[in-house]
Amino acid sequence: PRTMNLTIDIGNTRTKLAIFDGDNLVERHFWEEWAIEDLLQLTTNHKVRNVILCSVGQHLDEEVEMLIKAKYRLIQLDSETPLPIKNAYKTPQTLGKDRIAAVVGAFALYPGENCLVVDAGSCITYEWLTADGIYLGGNIAPGLRMRLRAMHEFTARLPEVTLHTVHNWIGDSTQSAMNNGVTVGTTLEIEGYRRHWEKEWGQLRVVLTGGDADFLTQTMQSEVANEPNLVFIGLNKILNHNVEYFVQSNLVFIGLNKILNHNVE
After folding, report:
1. Which of 27, 29, 37 is nearest to 10 (CA)?
2. How far apart, in whole angstroms, are the C-alpha atoms of residue 127 and residue 117?
3. Is residue 93's pLDDT more than 70?
4. Segment 229-255 mean pLDDT
5. Which helix (H) or strand (E) is 18 found in, with range?
6. Average pLDDT in the 60-88 region?
7. Of the candidates 114, 137, 135, which has an alpha carbon nearest to the alpha carbon of residue 126?
8. Is 38 a catalytic residue?
9. In this model, does residue 213 exceed pLDDT 80?
10. Is 249 exposed, middle or buried (0-12, 13-18, 19+ CB in 10 A)?
11. For the chain, how are helix, strand and coil distributed in percent, rounded to 5?
12. Beta-carbon neighbour count of residue 157 at 10 Å?
């Protein structure tokens, strides 16, 4: 039977989980609250053997962590975790774990391609991955709703505006002008990054993920890949990479032990 993987992404407000059979995503769960019993039931039902944990918010309770380690092969993603790509970020210990997971997800889905990975959440992150698998780094900008909120909160008279679809790129009211400034501005921001790096590298694939990816995809003037499961896919790729490394290391140790015993005899 094939080994099932579980990826766990613990955010500030909820925990996102995905079950993988090989490279195939089988099931997703989004939990606001959960207990260890919920996790054990999920892993038992799917015969999970390998688990990867990515936490950008709270850490696991120590007893829960020990229990998971006792039952499964657990990888906790941090700056020391071996990756299937080369990380050229100068301060890897400060790099968001979800950011590197998204980049590895793009590497898994689009091998041999230059990628601009755009994660459109509370903030928008822009990550650059070369065709030969080198993560160069990225930029961080305010997200769509953060931009709208900032205009309202840092001025005396601009209203609070809800994000909505753009019908005309030129605003004809204060509300539409603010919404356009944010939505069209962000769209052109992505397009500008694409044009700049295509001059440098040649063809570049733009990969969108995050809560506002669907909204931005509708406004884009050029083709983009909308991948809602990008972080999950990246975590699974990192997990498989580490499991293979673990198995190969064990085989080496077994072989060395066999040679040692042979010579002792």
Report:
1. 29
2. 5
3. yes
4. 77
5. strand 15-21
6. 87
7. 137
8. no
9. yes
10. exposed
11. 45, 25, 30
12. 6
**Top-confidence residue, 61 or 212:** 212
The first and second tokens of residue 83, run together, are 């990756």
Enumerate residues 6+ apart whose C-beta is below 8 A from 250.
none
At position 123, the amino acid (one-letter code) is C
Name the pTM for this structure. 0.87
Query: Using N-to-C axis directions, what is the helix angle for 97-109 and 230-264, rounded to 10°?
Result: 90
Catalytic residue among 98, 119, 212, 214: 98
**Tens digit of pLDDT for each residue in 179-191?**
999 999 999 999 9
Query: Residue 33: how many CB atoms within 10 A of its CB?
Result: 7
* Model confidence band, residue 57 (pLDDT cutoffs 50, 70, 90): low
Q: 161 near 232, Cβ under 8 Å?
A: no
Q: Is 40 exposed, middle or buried (0-12, 13-18, 19+ CB in 10 A)?
A: middle
Q: Which residues contact 200 (CB under 8 A, 6 or more apart)?
A: none
Buried b (16+ CB within 10 A) or exposed e, 213-230: bebbeeeeeeebbbbebb
